[in-house]
Write a structure and sequence with these properties.
The structure holds 2 protein chains of 2 kinds. Chain A is mainly beta. Chain A is 0% helix and 48% strand. In chain B, strands 2, 4, 5, 9, 10 and 11 form a 6-stranded mixed sheet that branches. Chain B has a 5-stranded antiparallel sheet with strand order 1-3-8-7-6, with no helix packed on it. The chains are: A mainly beta, B mainly beta.
């Protein structure tokens, strides 16, 4: 079946521009996560949804970052007034909810470059 | 402060030999540990996991060992193959379900030389 997909795969933004990154999780997966991966680092947690509810946004680095999942499926991560330090790969992951199912399935990521 | 540490940024191994990747953690609340493999321009792919009630889990050529008292785990790949060349991430969480954020190490780049 189809895995997690993300679009666009690559995005170049000028400093100060707004960007929107899309994630299509695996069909039926209840949990959805966003991670940020800077160059040479491991993925770092940004935010988590269970269906349409955003249960944890403790990893969002500033109020310029906003995420939504209005119908409990597709999610969008929006970054307003992008800064150079926002340059990173943004990874989306989904997971079925339930005890024991702790694998998260990752998409290919969106590489954001802010110039 | 890094809660999950992979202290070797890179590892080079000959084809057919054993690859051992190490991971240390500091948070005693972590009970579930996962290894992910990542190729360039792709997302991380789940490889193998272990919960703290076990000290070993095996899946084909891959075995993960957990030493909870030392807060240390390792991934063994035997025999190593050129296709195993990738970046390997160790990840941990405090709960078993898929509704908990993972904490990742910085990764170890494995190169398997033919």
């Amino acid at each position: 079946g189809a895995g997690v997909s993300q679009s666009p795969r690559y995005k170049v933004a000028k400093r100060g521009q707004d960007v929107a990154l899309r994630c299509d999780p695996i069909s039926g997966h209840v949990s959805l996560f966003w991670y940020q991966q800077a160059l040479g680092q491991g993925p770092e947690f940004l935010t988590y949804f269970q269906n349409e509810a955003q249960l944890d946004k403790s990893g969002l680095p500033s109020d310029r970052f906003f995420a939504e999942r209005p119908e409990g499926s597709v999610s969008t991560l929006k970054i307003q007034r992008t800064q150079q330090e926002d340059s990173a790969v943004y990874l989306c992951a989904s997971s079925p909810y339930g005890q024991g199912s702790y694998e998260q399935y990752f998409g290919p990521g969106t590489r954001l470059t802010v110039t | 402060d890094q809660q999950v540490k992979q202290n070797s940024p890179s590892l080079s191994v000959q084809e057919g030999r054993i690859s051992i990747l190490n991971c240390d953690y500091t948070n005693s609340m972590f009970d579930y540990f996962l290894w992910y493999k990542k190729y360039p321009a792709e997302g991380p792919t789940f490889l193998i996991s272990i919960s703290s009630i076990k000290d070993k889990n095996e899946d084909g050529r891959f075995t993960v060992f957990l030493n909870k008292s030392a807060k240390h785990l390792s991934l063994h790949i035997v025999p190593s193959q050129p296709g195993d060349s990738a970046v390997y991430f160790c990840a941990a969480s405090a709960q078993p379900s898929g509704n908990t954020p993972l904490v990742f190490g910085k990764g170890t780049r494995l190169s398997v030389i033919a």
